[in-house]
């Protein structure tokens, strides 16, 4: 179909899904109409023996004439072996990448979180045409200086950049080989008094119940911050965390004791939800915990709990491992020992609460 501006405006929208209308004037150009009302320009082209499609822009922000000019320039770039320039920022490109590949990614929501937390603030506003290998190395350097374990965000970044390379949007080799320098592993164990200070600070925070659950159970931050109401049995006072949220991919039970209550008023499926009530709490707990005035990271907290339970409460290693949801290391633990010692661990949590309530020395 020979498209015109009026035709693009008046083309009927599909009742479901989307439909693509080719432009007879510009090779490869098409307008995609969606049931939701959007009208987008895309370029279809062949590269390395594969058919590819790249979004050019949105109508009416981009006119048909502008889309034709952009498509012609992109095809010219492809014919000369240069990267195609889309006029997008890296944030625009990631949005297209994530939407098109989220069904094939192993953990799409986790990848999106990594982008929002560690990548978008640094490179999201950079135009694709200006993105260079040096930008990746600068990111790696920042992560190393902050002591951030960059394995996960670097994996997300690498897959994203190599996809842009394969699509001809970025030059081959933009993503450097290797990996960011590993930061020195943090190995700090808080003292009992420091744990008590954090406990007292937690009662003044906006979400005291969240911190009570973290400190009394010893669960990991994601296991607690993404807690859902349907995981709780408040009659039996038991919390069952599903395997999908556990590091070892095994369902885990924790006891609920009275000091962990009350919980916030129910606003959504999550106990601690974001402001809109559309998802779990997204605040970075490692940032919030610094407000306590104690140099502490969430994993330091778990290390401190293990030491305090052993030294001050005389708890055996097996029970501590069960409470911290560690995978048993012996054949007996993995094959034969099926008890989770829930009631012993309930007693441990009650004794731990009493110890935390004592004055700081």
Feature tags:
4-stranded antiparallel sheet, 361 residues, 7 strands, 3-stranded antiparallel sheet, alpha+beta
Head-to-tail CA distance between termini: 81 Å
- What structural class is derived from the secondary structure elements? alpha+beta
Number of strands: 7
Could you spell the SSE succession in H and E letters?
HEEEEHHHHHHHHEEEHHHHH
The main pleated sheet reads as: 4 strands, antiparallel
Number of helical regions: 14
Silhouette: elongated
Provide the residue-averaged pLDDT: 83
Radius of gyration: 26 Å
Spatial strand sequence of the major β-sheet:
1-2-3-4
Helix content: 40-55%
Poorly predicted runs are: none
Strand content: 5-15%
Précis, in short:
This protein has 14 helices and seven strands. With 361 residues, it is α+β, with helices and mostly antiparallel strands. The protein has a four-stranded antiparallel β-sheet with strand order 1-2-3-4. It has a three-stranded antiparallel β-sheet with strand order 5-6-7.
Description of the structure:
There is one protein chain. The protein is of the alpha+beta class and 361 residues long. Helices cover 43% and strands 11% of the residues. Strands 1-2-3-4 form a 4-stranded antiparallel sheet. A 3-stranded antiparallel sheet has the order 5-6-7. The radius of gyration is 26 Å and the shape is elongated. 25% of the residues are buried. The mean pLDDT is 83.
């Amino acid at each position: 179909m020979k498209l015109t501006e009026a035709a693009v405006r008046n083309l009927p929208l599909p009742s479901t899904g989307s439909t693509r209308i080719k432009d007879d004037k510009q090779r490869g150009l098409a307008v995609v109409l969606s049931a939701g009302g959007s009208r987008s320009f895309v370029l279809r082209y062949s590269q390395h023996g594969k058919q590819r499609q790249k979004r050019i822009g949105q109508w009416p922000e981009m006119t048909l004439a502008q889309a034709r000019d952009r498509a012609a320039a992109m095809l010219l770039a492809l014919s000369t072996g240069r990267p195609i320039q889309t006029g997008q920022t890296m944030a625009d490109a990631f949005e297209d990448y994530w939407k098109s590949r989220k069904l094939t990614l192993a953990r799409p929501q986790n990848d999106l979180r990594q982008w929002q937390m560690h990548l978008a603030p640094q490179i999201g506003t950079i135009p694709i045409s200006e993105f260079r290998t040096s930008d990746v190395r600068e990111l790696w350097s920042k992560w190393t200086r902050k002591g951030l374990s960059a394995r996960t965000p670097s994996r997300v970044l690498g897959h994203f950049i190599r996809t842009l390379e394969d699509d001809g949007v970025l030059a081959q080799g933009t993503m450097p080989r290797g990996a960011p320098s590993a930061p020195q592993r943090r190995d700090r164990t808080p003292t009992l008094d420091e744990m008590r200070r954090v406990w007292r600070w937690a009662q003044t925070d906006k979400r005291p119940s969240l911190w009570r659950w973290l400190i009394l159970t010893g669960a990991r931050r994601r296991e607690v911050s993404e807690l859902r109401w349907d995981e709780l049995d408040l009659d039996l006072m038991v919390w069952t965390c599903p395997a999908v949220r556990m590091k070892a991919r095994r369902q885990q039970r924790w006891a609920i004791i009275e000091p962990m209550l009350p919980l916030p008023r129910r606003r959504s499926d999550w106990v601690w939800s974001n402001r809109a009530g559309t998802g779990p709490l997204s605040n970075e707990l490692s940032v919030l915990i610094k407000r306590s005035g104690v140099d502490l990271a969430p994993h330091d907290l778990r290390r401190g709990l293990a030491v305090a339970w052993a030294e001050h409460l005389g708890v055996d290693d097996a029970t501590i491992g069960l409470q911290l949801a560690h995978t048993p290391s012996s054949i007996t633990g993995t094959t034969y020992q099926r008890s989770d010692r829930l009631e012993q661990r309930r007693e441990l949590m009650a004794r731990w609460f009493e110890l935390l309530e004592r004055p700081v020395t």
